[in-house]
Write a structure and sequence with these properties.
Length: 111
C-alpha cells in the first residue's frame, strides 16, 4: 500500500466513524424530543450557514431553481424518514441501511 492509499484509508475510516457517531447522537436526542422538533432545531442551525439571501455567482439558470427545490424536498423527506426510523431501530442498523442505500446509488449507474 502506497502513501496515497494509506491516506485515503485513514480519511475513509475517520469519515465513517464520524457518520456512525452521528446516528448515536441523533438516537439519544430523539429520547428527549420529537422527530419534528429535533429536525426543526437541526436544520435551523444549518440554515444559518447558508441563509436564503445568499448571492450565488454565477447566478443559477431559471430551470435549475425548480429542480433544486424538488431535490431539496426529496432530501427533506429522506431526513424525516431516516430520523423517524431511528425510533424503531438501533443506531448501528440504521447506519447500515443508510450506508447500503448510498452505496447502491453510487454503484447502480455503473451497471
Amino acid at each position: 500500500m502506497n502513501a496515497d492509499d494509506a491516506r485515503q484509508a485513514t480519511w475513509t475510516a475517520r469519515r465513517d466513524r464520524a457518520v456512525g457517531t452521528s446516528f448515536v447522537a441523533v438516537k439519544s436526542a430523539l429520547a428527549d424530543a420529537t422527530t419534528v422538533a429535533f429536525l426543526t432545531v437541526r436544520f435551523g442551525i444549518g440554515r444559518t450557514r447558508a441563509p436564503p439571501w445568499t448571492r450565488f455567482r454565477p447566478r443559477p439558470a431559471a430551470g435549475s431553481c425548480g429542480a433544486g427545490a424538488l431535490l431539496g424536498a426529496l432530501v427533506a423527506v429522506g431526513f424525516v424518514a431516516q430520523t423517524a426510523g431511528l425510533g424503531d431501530h438501533d443506531p448501528s442498523r440504521s447506519a447500515f441501511i443508510v450506508r447500503s442505500s448510498v452505496l447502491r446509488g453510487i454503484v447502480s449507474p455503473l451497471w
